[in-house]
Amino acid sequence: MHVVKFDVADVWQVAAERLQQQIHTTTYEQWFQNIVPVTLNEQALVLGVSDDFFADWLKDNFDDILSDSLKDVEGIDYSYSFASGYLPKKKKEEPQAKSKPKAAKTVKAVKPGNCLSRHTFDNFVVGEENRYAYAATHTAAGSPGLYNPLYIYGGTGTGKTHLLQAVAHHVVERHPGTRVRYITCEEFLNNYVDSLRNKKHSEFRSFVRDIDILLVDDVHMLGNKTQLQEEFFNTFNSLYNQNKQIILTSDKQPSEIKGLEARLVSRFESGVTTEISIPGFETRLAILRMMQEEHLVKLNDAVLQFIANNIHSSVRRLQGALFRLVAFASAMSVADIDVEHAERLLRKLLEEETAAQLVSIESIQRIVADYFEIRVNDLLSDKRPKNIAQPRMVAMYLCRKLTAFSYPEIGCAFGRNHATIMNAWKKIPQLCSKDENMRRSVSLLERKFKN
Ligand code: ADP
Ligand code: MG
Q1: Count of Cβ atoms closer than 10 Å to residue 223 Cβ
Q2: Is 130 helix (H, G, I), strand (E, B) or coil?
């Protein structure tokens, strides 16, 4: 059979047309229009994008539809990878990017295994909120077994996956003899199930056990999966008993994971547990500045400050906002986006942020003060009697629990420092476990805000 050979531009054209039919025009313009087809090697297509961030974003958000669009192009299924350093062609007067396209540095060709290449310790901005998690993972990478297991928990987009993969990169680079494995809990599940089906259980076991460092992402997924927990428990013990390093991440503390067996809870709690919380303004700005360095298109600092000021719910969203502006700037050749322009472009994101913040710090202060029959001013004062100090701690605790504000931000709203809020965050659950009245009050207040 004679097959007409497509070149790279042909294949991309077919895919691009399919994409345009499938997704909204603005989405297409923002994310796909600037992609440059670079080379075609057998069935592997290399797509040029401006930078690694952009490539990661596409991969994170559009991998399925991109892969689908490359299926059955004249009977052939193509795969793709990205190369960074490609800016779309611009109008003549616009200067082209200074840097030449980097040698195809593809996002797929990451090492080690399934980790993103930019998830390194170097690219991680350390602030008040993640300092301890950073230090602990760094130590664990350099001295495996010292903090064992190391359990990191926190909300989504706070950098847990980033840190976990940073350990893998660090070990591969600095300690090449050490065998490290990064795996998400979901992959653990899938591999385990496949191994049972294909009667390759012993291979699966050696995959997760014949190693020196095991990094498991999102272990809250273990909840309510009894058989998986059994397997995980055995894997854990096998590694732990050989003093191999285990690092786990989760969106909750072990005891808060629903349907997690007590023996796993106690294993997970037996080493070092550390929380990583949503970064405050300074860290957010530092992260934006760092991310900005990687982009070829530069935004002015007032815009970065605007983003940092208005997006506080997660680093991922922060990144999303930056990408949106950068993509716009590079597509439309707008060199200098100002704050007003940014505000318009980010309107949807900003609205979502406000919705997420419906429970405001002020409303919590007011309702807690009412409930305990004191004044809001008492909460904000320096008064120390128990009938004021405890409601104050409750209010701080609820702010941390029910809003996306960081410790420093909540501290600021109470005229205190972040350490006071962290203390309240730790103390209230302890008080609740000892004092039934307190427990009832806190859970009643919490419910007031939830519906
Ligand atoms: P999580 O796993 O906690 O949900 P991720 O590790 O996936 O969060 O982080 C979301 C995004 O934000 C990633 O692109 C990550 O690189 C970035 N990020 C998070 N925290 C930081 C930080 N402190 N410094 C630099 N980038 C960060
Ligand atoms: Mg993650």
Answers
A1: 18
A2: coil
User: Which bin fits 367, alpha (ψ -120 to 50), beta or left (φ > 0)?
Assistant: alpha
Please name which of 164, 163, 182, 153 lies closest in space to residue 273, comparing C-alpha atoms. Answer: 153
CA 199/CA 268 separation, integer angstroms? 29
Please list, residue by residue across 155-179, b when 16 or more beta carbons sit within 10 angstroms of its beta carbon and e when fewer do: bebbbbbbbbbbbbbbbbeeeeebe
Taking the whole predicted model, whether its pTM rises above 0.85 is answered as no
Give me the sign of the Cα torsion angle 201, 202, 203, 208. positive
Give CA–CA dist 317/284, Å, rounded.
Answer: 11
In which element (H, E) is residue 44 found?
A: strand 44-49
> Which residues contact residue 261 at a Cβ distance below 8 angstroms, ignoring those fewer than 6 apart?
226, 229, 233
pLDDT digits over 147-187, tens only? Answer: 999 999 998 889 999 999 999 999 999 998 899 999 999 99
Strands of the sheet containing 79-84, edge to edge, are 36-41, 44-49, 79-84
* Residue 168 to residue 255: CA distance in whole angstroms: 27
From 252, 293, 315, 319, give the residue whose CB has the most ligand 1 atoms within 8 Å, as the site to mutate: 315
| Omega before residue 112 within 30° of 0, cis | yes
Ligand 1 geometric centre to CA of 161 (Å): 7
| Ion ligand 2: residue ranges with CB closer than 5 A | 161
The Cα 236–Cα 250 span in angstroms is 16
Sheet holding 180-184, edge to edge: 180-184, 213-217, 245-250, 150-153, 272-275
Q: How far is the CA of 157 from the centre of ligand 1 (A)?
A: 5
pLDDT in tens, 226-255: 999 999 999 999 999 999 999 999 998 998
- Tokens standing for residue 305: 């400050």
